[in-house]
Fold this protein.
Amino acid sequence: MSGHHVDEPRWKHDGVRVIKGDQLDPNTAQTPGMYRQAAVNHARVGAQKIWAGTVSIQPNAKTGAHHHGELESVIYVVKGKARMRWGENLEFVAEADPGDFIFVPPYVPHQEINANSDEPLECVVIRSDNEAVVVNLPNVAPAEAPEEVYWIDPIHRRP
């Protein structure tokens, strides 16, 4: 096979990528109460259709009611306990423990909550697009009022 030397550099640098856990990129918008690090995005690896990273959320933090438009989100709980509320009036609730995955479909009104009052919630987050789409829903009362600590990050702003 002549020519495999020509292909080598391209595949070496543009093929499969391993992003070491201690080499994540904190050069992304940061907000009190959360610490986010990007692992997979357009800037780091040229990803076109997904975003992935880690997020650490302080105890008792909660978002306001919102949805993410067409985006799909997957949250993998590494440490702590996550509580999710969703529905037209956030009337449904489920909790997730370490090792659990949470799937949030497009346009579903929801609220994310760190269910623990004494330890951070550490998660891996994967989104189906690089765009940080968030639609706050001021007419939907939060099921659990985020008066103590707001869960704020580049995609979840203070309502």
